[in-house]
């Protein structure tokens, strides 16, 4: 019962915040629960991030597959400083994602704060909740910084 209440609350928050991603995700999970397909929830939890990353990567690689990005475009991207900054950003992002995954494995209760923070970011900052691993990676860095300054 509690899970359904949380999902309905997320649907309402998603509608108010105009976040179709949160609304749709909560609706799908609510349908799964109400149709007694709960046995698939652990599989969704276990494989959902991988599946989401797969589709995100597919979307990002479509310009390569469609031929809109040519080899000359790739080379041109690294002739200016912005291309090199993008390369560094991609490498740092990948590193933070790996730290986020490690952090969630060690401290899974952090996901509550990350999910609530993502919802707050969507509603109040007009963000897009596509980066729970990145959020976990940033959380890991922030935790390390706090521990460094506080001495814990």
From TrEMBL:
The chain crosses the membrane at residues 6-31, 51-69, 75-96, 108-125, 131-150. GO terms for cellular component: plasma membrane. It is a multi-pass membrane protein. It comes from Cohnella lupini. The keyword Transmembrane helix applies. Coiled coil: none annotated. It is found in: Cell membrane. Keywords: Cell membrane, Membrane, Transmembrane, Transmembrane helix. Belongs to the UPF0756 family. This is UPF0756 membrane protein DFP95_10594.
């Amino acid at each position: 019962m509690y899970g359904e209440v949380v999902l309905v609350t997320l649907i309402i928050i998603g509608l108010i915040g105009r976040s179709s991603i949160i609304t749709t995700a909560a609706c799908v999970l609510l349908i799964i629960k109400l149709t007694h397909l709960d046995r698939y929830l652990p599989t969704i939890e276990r494989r959902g991030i991988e599946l989401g990353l797969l589709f995100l990567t597919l979307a990002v690689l479509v310009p390569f597959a469609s031929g809109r990005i040519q080899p000359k475009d790739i080379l041109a991207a690294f002739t200016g400083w912005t291309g090199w900054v993008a390369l560094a950003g991609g490498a740092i992002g990948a590193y933070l994602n790996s730290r986020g995954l490690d952090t969630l494995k060690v401290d899974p209760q952090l996901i509550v704060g990350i999910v609530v923070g993502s919802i707050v970011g969507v509603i109040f900052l007009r963000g897009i909740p596509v980066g729970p691993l990145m959020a976990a990676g940033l959380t890991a860095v922030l935790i390390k910084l706090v521990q460094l300054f506080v001495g814990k």
